[in-house]
């Protein structure tokens, strides 16, 4: 597959075909496309295209996508479209981003909160003791401040599941 074809589809605004190309890169684990996909990931304002790229990078096992994905999660343009970005992170070691992920658990909507939990679940054994202590403190603070009993119960269970001994 030619990266040039992907560039052309994007330039023409033909995102349906661009997504099909990206999905093929993911299916075939075309590592050579990683750099180009990360560029498109960061530049696009098209949520479905961005999500397709994130999933393809995950399917490819492109660990270098973690930093750009984490950066995008904090970008206002991704509000309301963060679930797939977090889903893509599940297959990577995100332990050094535990604090940000806990913030998303505490402050994100239902999908973002639960998906952040799943990302942390996948890397919980690699989170440093210092990070674990911070995360527990932040979760406890959120529990104390929450009026939503269901969310508070979820965060309480998360402390036990993610950081319990």
From TrEMBL:
Residues passing through the membrane, by range: none
Any Pfam family matching the protein: HEAT_2
SUPFAM superfamilies: ARM repeat (SSF48371)
Domain of life from the UniProt record: Bacteria
Name of the protein: PBS lyase
Native source organism of the sequence: Tumebacillus flagellatus
